[in-house]
């Protein structure tokens, strides 16, 4: 990850030990752990003051010309913004006559996963390299191995020069600390999965992290700044934020924060996100006792949770100025900027809303703009406004999405207004030609816009004017989310199923909201039109539902009852995820599908309201399955849901691939260290 922004002060790190020559000054002089660090220094120099830890042979200086020493190993305490990492410094002796390559390997005790490697460093004689050991499990014992080889020489051996152990930090959240958070079955190709999560913690207490000194006792760690009082009380706290799990289901990243809307990774191995801001000067209490604020923000953080950049989107003025960020934070590799969605209010007098529950008049409607954030400049600009392309005056159809008073929004300090949620843009992604692929849940449509200049290229929808027509009515999506266009031009769409024919038509009041409903992921090929007067074909290439499979019946000719009979099994048994879901193509050519909201108690298959993520191949065969149980220990199901699940290949540059073309020599004896 990039270095911390110079305007942000991180929480102090803890558990440092300096094993350099005693003549070198301690980096911890003047702080609370100075005494412990100096004790270690004294022990290394032979000037003992009491019981100094005895160093193992592997950590003693070797006789080689390019020996290295462990300069420091720091682990943050459990109250840091993100504590699941360690910081290591390695120093090459000044008598070395050549530059050296240094690699650090580490692994959790008892794990069957592949070894992790930190980013390689090339060091000059007397130089110190720093390594971030990311993707750590909480409260886990780790072994580490430091490898050295002459730089610039191909096919050279790399030797183990030092090794030892340390214990990672506690998050203070029992669900995270005490074992796997999720159940992972199969053989996933992804490295980590990230999602929003919330858990109630009965006792607001974080356990100190420790660093195990070789052949010596553990050391007391320095306290970090306390958790803010409004986020932590005697009764406990809500451990809400972003987490990432490894392929064995353990939490390996935790960024604590409320109001997170969307997030994505960058090429700089940082995390960008959009967030609702709590409190502040702009917050107010209305006549009903509700607290309101219109402010949202773009943020960029590193693997340690340290803020790199932030831009606040202020809401002020008239009620129709409400402009909160919604549902998206997509990194645009072409520009290095971040795409998002912003509320956009419009007034369209005397429009008849075609709600399936009855028609009514409305004049205030909520749409969205696609905006782009330049995180380095701290500015954002509008890319396109949905009302320039679709409007309630002409793009209205009978839909359960048009429920009355869908929105009660306002800018800070202003009277609330009532408005109909018109477009509800769900996602924006970049297609193979640099085009913007935008998903509208309420319009039941997917749009493609060219980039330069911005112009509407095509629309795919079964409900509004469309440039494509589905081969069969049963192929159409309903309530699409997270659409992505692949390199071959085909579309991946999470079909939430909201408004699907037959969905919610049950006469049973207890199950009316979900009977006849199911969600799926669909892949469509888009053909060219035979003429400009005809709609081109949108062909369903494959679909995936869980846990059952529609197989051939899904593509059969639609029956007179709107396809209900064809989908009977799926409608009654498969996952229904109308609020949030996502799909991503993985490097292996497989796809990660996430039923991320986990409706609970409405369907027999998911009484616990789990988040379910599935890795499937292009034929729909399941390679891996992830089940994340309901997160709120109080039993409140209303806060469950992640909206989407994102795969991360790396958190801070760590990898499971050996980052060198050289050969490893697993020698743990310092006497076998090479003369470089």
Gist of the model:
The chain is mainly beta.
How is the topology of this model organized?
Elements: H1 34-45, E1 68-74, E2 86-92, E3 100-108, E4 116-117, E5 121-123, E6 128-133, E7 141-150, E8 157-167, H2 174-177, E9 183-186, E10 192-201, E11 237-245, E12 251-256, E13 260-265, E14 271-276, E15 284-285, E16 291-292, E17 296-301, E18 307-313, E19 325-332, E20 337-355, E21 358-374, E22 379-385, E23 407-409, E24 417-421, E25 425-430, E26 436-440, E27 445-450, E28 455-460, E29 468-470, E30 480-485, E31 491-495, E32 520-526, E33 536-544, H3 568-573, E34 581-585, E35 591-595, E36 611-616, E37 622-628, E38 646-648, E39 663-665
Parallel strand pairs: 8-39, 21-24, 29-33
Antiparallel strand pairs: 1-2, 2-6, 3-4, 3-5, 3-7, 7-8, 9-37, 10-11, 10-38, 11-12, 13-14, 14-17, 15-16, 17-18, 19-20, 20-21, 21-22, 23-24, 25-26, 26-27, 27-28, 30-31, 31-32, 32-33, 34-35, 35-36, 36-37
Helix content: under 10%
Strand content: 35-45%
Shape annotation? elongated
Gyration radius over CA:
28 Å
* Main sheet characteristics: 6 strands, mixed
Report the uncertain regions.
1-64, 203-234, 550-566, 634-639, 668-676
Quaternary structure state of the chains depicted = single chain
Q: Give the mean pLDDT.
A: 76
Query: What is the terminal-to-terminal distance?
Result: 30 Å
Count of helical segments? Answer: 3
């Amino acid at each position: 990850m990039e270095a911390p922004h110079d305007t942000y002060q991180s929480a102090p790190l803890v558990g440092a030990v300096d094993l350099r020559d005693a003549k070198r000054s301690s980096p911890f002089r003047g702080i609370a752990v100075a005494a412990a660090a100096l004790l270690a220094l004294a022990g290394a120099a032979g000037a003992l003051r009491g019981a100094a830890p005895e160093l193992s042979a592997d950590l003693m200086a070797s006789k080689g010309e390019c020996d290295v020493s462990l300069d420091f190993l720091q682990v943050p305490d459990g109250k840091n913004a993100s504590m699941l990492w360690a910081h290591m410094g390695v120093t090459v002796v000044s008598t070395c006559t050549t530059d050296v390559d240094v690699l650090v390997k580490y692994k959790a005790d008892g794990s069957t996963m592949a070894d992790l490697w930190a980013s390689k460093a090339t060091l000059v004689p007397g130089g110190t390299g720093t390594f971030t050991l990311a993707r750590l499990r909480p409260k886990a014992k780790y072994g580490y191995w430091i490898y050295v080889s002459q730089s610039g020489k191909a096919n050279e051996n790399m030797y183990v020069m030092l090794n030892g152990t340390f214990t990672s930090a506690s998050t203070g959240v029992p669900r995270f600390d005490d074992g796997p958070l999720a159940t992972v079955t199969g053989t996933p190709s992804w490295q980590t999965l990230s999602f929003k999560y919330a858990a109630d913690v009965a006792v607001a207490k974080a356990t100190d992290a420790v660093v195990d000194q070789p052949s010596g006792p553990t050391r007391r760690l320095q306290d970090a700044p306390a958790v803010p009082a409004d986020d932590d009380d005697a009764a406990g706290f809500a451990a809400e934020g972003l987490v990432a799990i490894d392929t064995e289901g353990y939490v390996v990243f935790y960024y604590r924060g409320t109001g997170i809307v969307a997030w994505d990774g960058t090429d700089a191995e940082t995390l960008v996100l959009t967030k609702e801001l709590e409190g502040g000067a702009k917050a107010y209490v209305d006549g009903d006792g509700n607290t309101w604020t219109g402010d949202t923000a773009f943020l960029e953080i590193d693997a340690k949770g340290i803020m790199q950049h932030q831009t606040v989107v202020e809401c002020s003025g008239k009620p129709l100025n409400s402009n909160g960020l919604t549902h998206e934070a997509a990194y645009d590799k072409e520009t290095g900027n971040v795409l998002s969605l912003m509320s956009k209010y419009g007034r369209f007098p005397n429009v008849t809303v075609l709600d399936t529950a009855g028609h009514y008049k409305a004049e205030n409607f909520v749409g969205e703009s696609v905006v782009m954030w330049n995180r380095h400049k701290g500015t954002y600009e509008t890319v396109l406004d949905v009302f320039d392309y679709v409007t309630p005056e002409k793009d209205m159809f009978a839909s359960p999405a048009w429920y009355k008073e869908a929105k009660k929004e306002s800018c800070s300090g202003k009277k609330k207004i009532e408005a109909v949620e018109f477009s509800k843009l769900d996602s924006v992604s970049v297609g193979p030609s640099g085009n913007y692929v935008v998903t509208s849940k309420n319009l039941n449509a997917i749009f493609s816009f060219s980039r330069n200049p911005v112009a509407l290229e095509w629309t795919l929808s079964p409900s509004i004017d469309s440039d494509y027509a589905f081969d069969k009515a049963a192929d159409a999506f309903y309530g699409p989310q997270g659409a992505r266009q692949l390199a071959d031009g085909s579309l991946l769409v999470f079909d939430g199923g909201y408004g699907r024919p037959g969905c919610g038509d049950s006469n049973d009041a207890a199950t009316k909201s979900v009977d006849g409903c199911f969600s799926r992921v669909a892949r469509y090929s888009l053909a060219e039109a035979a003429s400009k007067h005809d709609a081109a074909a949108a062909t369903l290439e494959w679909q995936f539902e869980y846990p059952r499979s529609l197989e051939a019946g899904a593509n059969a000719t639609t029956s007179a009852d709107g396809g209900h009979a064809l989908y009977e099994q799926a409608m009654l048994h498969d996952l229904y995820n109308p609020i949030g879901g996502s799909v991503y193509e993985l490097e292996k050519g497989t796809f990660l599908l996430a039923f991320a909201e986990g409706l609970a108690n409405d369907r027999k298959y998911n009484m616990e309201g789990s988040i379910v993520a599935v890795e499937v191949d292009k034929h729909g065969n399941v390679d891996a399955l992830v089940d994340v149980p309901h997160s709120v220990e109080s039993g409140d199901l209303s806060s469950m849901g992640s909206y989407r699940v994102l795969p991360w290949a790396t958190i801070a540059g760590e990898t499971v691939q050996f980052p060198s073309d050289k050969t490893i020599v697993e020698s743990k004896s310092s006497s076998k260290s090479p003369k470089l």
